[in-house]
Amino acid sequence: MDRDPFKEYMKETEPNKRYKGYAWHTAIGLQAVDGLKTSEYLLHTAIRNIEGEISFEEANALLQNYYEENPTRDATNRTEEADKVSARIAALISESSFSLTPNEYLSIHRKLFEDIYYNAGCIRDYNITKKEWVLNGATVIYGSATELKATLEYDIAEEKKFSYKNLSMEEIIHHLAVFISRLWQIHVFGEGNTRTTAVFFIKYLRTLGFDVTNDIFAENAWYFRNSLVRANYNDIKNGIYETTEFLEIFLRNLLLNENHPLHNRTLHISGTFKETEKPDIETAKPDIDEPKPDIEVFFQPKTVSNILKLREAFPGQTIFGRSDVMKVIDIKASRASDFLKDMVEHGVIEPVTGHGKGKYRFR
């Protein structure tokens, strides 16, 4: 965004406006972890909400109507996702309810990404790697798809048993850094993992008595993500060890209102990243490498042939719909709808907007 009015609201003496300003500022700032940017329309909608003209429910409804009337044509343009998720994050942060449970974690993901990701609120069922700028293209070792549910339940159960009584603030911050970095490393979700983890963490911190109504998350979301990466990466032969030191610095600023510099270049594993080499979040955000589904295992030869025809007709991230499928492989509407559903269920394609008569792209 070219201008940021939320800081002024965060200085408001009126608590409701101040807290809403913080919620929107944080929600929009968190989109940076995936290199996303919000629209001017969202900005105006957010201000109307802060001023008390509309509720969060009405803000979400306005965004839904706006994008139904102004559908995104470019598959690489994820502004709609950024706008809708920002509004949902702001609403969730503004709610006081929270439970430290796996279901809460899954529920937050579902609420944030419903109608955006086909698997919103679901535990991923495939293994992933991600090329990280901060690791010179290497990847963190994420949780195995077969163990995600058990690992998530174990980590949260251990945190529920943990007592912060008689700990120093340094010990509390270190423990929180270890807990959230381990939760993030499980990577329960294929997409939206960091944003979900951040919302879950903010709400959990409030149950511990921390206010966290400052601009640290909003202005340093990418640093937060990179510090999670460094907390989970080892390359011992090259003298690189997992460390929560960067995450702890972030948390000291967040929880204690300290003012340590938070520069992404300091997290780079080379240790020699220069001032003039500041990364561009648009190009340095992580690339997720997912194994492509083996279509020959799931489909009959004729169906495989039709899928390959569609891949050729709609390469990369090209968006297509039911009518396009009907033309390319010469089938009727009902069969095209069933075909699209089968490909979604087997992870061959993913919905971009809606289902059935919506738009899709190959994964």
From TrEMBL:
Reaction catalysed by this enzyme: L-threonyl-[protein] + ATP = 3-O-(5'-adenylyl)-L-threonyl-[protein] + diphosphate; L-tyrosyl-[protein] + ATP = O-(5'-adenylyl)-L-tyrosyl-[protein] + diphosphate
Alphabetized UniProt keyword annotations: ATP-binding, Nucleotide-binding, Nucleotidyltransferase, Transferase
Domain Fido: residue ranges: 100-249
Enzyme Commission code(s) on record: 2.7.7.108
Top EC class, one word: transferase
TM stretches of this protein: none
InterPro entries: Fido, Fido-like_dom_sf, VbhA-like
CDD domains from the UniProt entry: VbhA_like
The name this protein goes by in its record: protein adenylyltransferase
